[in-house]
Write a structure and sequence with these properties.
Length: about 290
């Protein structure tokens, strides 16, 4: 009897194993998909593409050797692998640690940013780490000491600078202004990046007029960014952009200059506008800026 009972237990064990699901110890987690390139579509600008991927326009342009006014062609392939051109100082940073991170010399980094020994920097300070503008100066001075500065400088500039026929006149941005609310209304959704709320929602009225929150230049006007509806993006400085989404009609076009009092769009029946401000590619809390 004992032997029969043992055999029954053994059969039950093997029967249970045959019905058990396969072990998962060998199931590796599929690698996360990172988009590395982007094909330019109709109506897209470098600014709208940078906005879509939460990138700095300056760094996206640098990664693709583009210069202002950043003209794109439909079907053009853009590299989304970004090389940092700016570094925001955080607690514990030193000029030596920043230089090491970006493969630069302390001397060249200090010179580029107008710093003198002992190279004091403060949290929140923005340091330029753009090797295009740092390396040629460094090479020039090193070789000048050897009597070969001019030749090497020309070689470095040719290697690091995009070849263009002409350089357009740079846009001069207004200064000494303060942010203003783009529309009268009540904030119904606050800034919360952790919940993918990169801006704020303002409830106004049907057909309400939207005004530029600051003077600048329109760099995108269209409906090509999913989730934004009819969208306008305005550039206010080299690092500050604002976006006005969910419009019913757009009253400005790409390349147009706008004043702070200019009406740029109108809202639809819902009367709710979505508004963002980005600094060097990063979303910031609009409430901290608006007056």
């Amino acid at each position: 009897m004992i032997r029969i009972a043992f055999m029954m237990v053994l059969l039950s064990f093997f029967s249970g194993c045959s019905n058990s699901p396969a072990g998962i110890s060998d199931r590796g987690q599929p690698p996360s998909i990172r988009i590395k390139t982007h094909r330019v579509d109709v109506g897209e600008t470098l600014y709208s593409i940078a906005w879509r991927y939460d990138l700095s326009v300056n760094e996206l342009a640098y990664a693709n050797l583009l210069v202002a006014p950043y003209t794109l062609k439909v079907g053009q392939k853009l590299n989304l692998k970004i090389v940092k051109t700016r570094h925001t100082v955080t607690a514990g940073d030193t000029l030596f640690s920043i230089a090491s991170t970006y493969g630069l010399t302390v001397w060249s980094l200090a010179r580029k940013n107008g710093l003198s020994p002992p190279y004091f920097i403060n949290p929140g300070q923005v340091i330029s780490v753009d090797s295009r503008s740092i390396l040629p100066s460094r090479s020039q001075d090193v070789q000048a000491a050897k009597g070969k500065g001019r030749a090497l400088k020309n070689t470095a500039v040719q290697r690091l600078t995009p070849q263009i026929q002409s350089v357009p006149k740079p846009i001069i941005y207004s200064s000494n202004w303060q942010w203003k609310w783009p529309i009268d209304g009540q904030v119904v959704e606050t800034f919360n990046p952790g919940k993918l709320q990169k801006g704020i929602k303002i409830k106004s009225s049907n057909g309400a007029q939207v005004r530029a929150a600051a003077p600048g230049h329109v760099v995108y006007a269209g409906s090509g960014l999913r989730g934004y509806g009819r969208l306008i993006i305005i550039k206010h400085s080299d690092i500050l952009l604002s976006a006005y989404a969910n419009n019913d009609s757009l009253l400005v076009a790409v390349g147009q200059s706008v004043k702070q009092t200019d009406v740029i769009s109108s809202l639809g029946v819902d009367g709710t506008m979505y508004f963002e401000i980005r600094k060097d590619g990063d979303p910031v809390n609009p409430i901290s800026y608006l007056k």
